[in-house]
Amino acid sequence: MLTLLGASVSTALVASAATVSIPTHDAFFDNIRQYCGQAFEGRVVEDNFTGVENFKENRLVMHVRKCSENELQIPFHIGDNHSRTWILTKTGAGISLKHDHRNPDGSDDDGTMYGGHTVDAGWEFAQSFPADHYSKEDFIRRKIPQSIWNTWHMYIYPDDFFSYRLTREGRELRVDFDLTNPVDLPPTPWGYEDTD
């Protein structure tokens, strides 16, 4: 009888854990979700990386495209490149940030679904996402081990601006988006045509 009772209590605890959320995570989520259906233009305010893609040479647009109680899909358009979608998900242990990268035909890019997970309460206007285990393994596989130290940050100040920031030793990228001036909606991100 004790074993059965213990099993039922454990099951109940696991079930309730999946729906746990804390006020700062909820507030951060809601601060972004209030812009659902709108798009905003951004500008690079910090970028010390001279890689394959130069963010400064392209028009940058974020689109808070799809929103539910537990997930936000936010495509990040870089000029004519519609490959990226940020996916924020409440996990029951915090918030996960994933970068869904697609090819023009909608198929998964070789480097997709990397990202991180909150490790603390954060704040209602700011959350940080250190690289998760999946991402570290993927970065090693793709021979970019320096990326295992990536931390992504998002800041949102309603009626003012939203920031997307990537940091690691020797690397910083930050794009600020003007929330006071919505822009025309960008094209559907690659691979998401069937989800409209």
Average pLDDT, rounded to a whole number, is: 90
- CATH classification class: Mainly Beta
Number-wise, the strands total 11
| Number of individual domains | 1
Q: How much of the residues is beta strand, in percent?
A: 35-45%
Overall morphology: globular
Roughly what percent helix? 10-25%
CATH T-level fold name: Lipocalin
- The parts where pLDDT drops under 50 for at least 5 residues are 1-18
Name given to the CATH architecture:
Beta Barrel
Overall description:
The chain is an alpha+beta fold and 196 residues long. It has a single domain (23-184), classed as Beta Barrel (Lipocalin). It is 18% helix and 39% strand. It has three helices and eleven strands. It has helices at residues 2-17, 23-33, 133-141; strands at residues 39-47, 60-63, 66-67, 71-78, 81-90, 95-101, 114-117, 126-130, 151-157, 161-168, 171-183. The N and C termini lie far apart (50 Å). 26% of the residues are buried. This is Secreted protein. Keywords: Signal. It comes from Aliidiomarina halalkaliphila. Residues 1-17 form the signal peptide.
Q: What is the secondary structure topology, with strand pairs?
A:
Blueprint: H1 2-17, H2 23-33, E1 39-47, E2 60-63, E3 66-67, E4 71-78, E5 81-90, E6 95-101, E7 114-117, E8 126-130, H3 133-141, E9 151-157, E10 161-168, E11 171-183
Antiparallel strand pairs: 1-2, 1-11, 2-4, 3-4, 4-5, 5-6, 6-7, 8-9, 9-10, 10-11
Signal peptide: 1-17
Protein name: Secreted protein
Keywords: Signal
Key descriptive features of the protein:
alpha+beta; globular; Lipocalin; 196 residues; 3 helices; 18% helix; 11-stranded antiparallel β-sheet; disordered N terminus
